[in-house]
Amino acid sequence: ATAVLVIASTEVDKTGASYYGEQALHYIATNGESAVVQLPKNGPIYDVVWNPNSVEFCAVYGFMPAKATIFNLKCDPVFDFGTGPRNAAYYSPHGHILVLAGFGNLRGQMEVWDIKNYKLISKPVASDSTYFAWCPDGEHIVTATCAPRLRVSNGYKIWHYTGSLLHNHEVPSNEEMWQVSWQPFLDGVFPAKAVKYQAVPSELPSAEPKPAQAYRPPALRNKPVTSSKLHEDEPPQNMKPQSGSSDKPLSKTALKNQRKHEAKKAAKQEAKAEANQESTQASASQNAPRSAVPAFTSGDPEVDKKIKNLKKKLKAIEQLKEQAAAGKQLEKNQLEKIQKETALLQELEDLELGL
């Protein structure tokens, strides 16, 4: 009770960056000191919570994917958790574990962190949760779906912080559940225990939902999967790649050049693979028995050249037809090539007959 955090809001953002106005986080101490907490990412402030140990606080802020940062009493950042789908933070009663979660309009993903060592313990998922609370023992968590926020699929789940689902209670479809609460205990009843990383045993199956398959347009379905995220999540500061001795993040220009270099490298590798495939096909055709395709010569080098080109085109069309028969989605120009097969055959026949 020596300091307070205040979220201040304005209805209008004078910079025009946000339709909903802007927010700022202020630290005010009882001795008269005050400061504006400098948040590295623009956007709304979703949640700010004090650690029960009274020496730090955690803020969840910024446009999605949101950042989460721990600050000390001087408002200096202590640890940056990077970005992710989150809008809430919950310290355990002893202050040694922190849960970052995305509830409400997010999918219920949670990250459980050991605050002393800044190590990720588990990543359970509690979909459609409207309520979260730590048990006074600092080991168990309850998540619940309650009315009137949600009137369907009401119920609660009890978790161990290592990610194990220990109990799942579902309310009958004709009933509603309004509130869930842990039995209160006085401070000091449950001593702090060492943090575990191994999931505790549970009789219930894992509650992790199956990842939904992302929609892929027909033109991309038979091509290698590439990253198509709107936003690349920023990793926590202790998981960022160390480039030499410099810890500074790359500038926008350096990042752009790096992406260009990676794209060029990928294009070269793809071209190399295609060239290898063509050489393999060529060597296979050369090793084929000569009697299989009798060589035709008209006596005129120009005509022979045209016949050779026509046969090459017809062979490519055959390969495209085989790919289509195998279920591959062909491009528009490839379909147009197949449609020209009859005309090419007629032209080849005319040349061979000397018409």
Automatic annotation (TrEMBL):
Gene3D superfamilies xref list: YVTN repeat-like/Quinoprotein amine dehydrogenase
Pfam families with a match to the protein in the record: eIF2A
GO cellular component: cytosolic small ribosomal subunit
One record GO biological process: regulation of translation
Superkingdom, taxonomy of origin: Eukaryota
Record region (Disordered): 202-304
Domain Translation initiation factor beta propellor-like span(s) in chain numbering: 2-180
GO molecular function: mRNA binding; ribosome binding; translation initiation factor activity; tRNA binding
InterPro entries: TIF2A, TIF_beta_prop-like, WD40/YVTN_repeat-like_dom_sf
Protein name listed in UniProt: Eukaryotic translation initiation factor 2A
Protein source organism: Pandion haliaetus (Osprey)
Chain's gene name: Eif2a
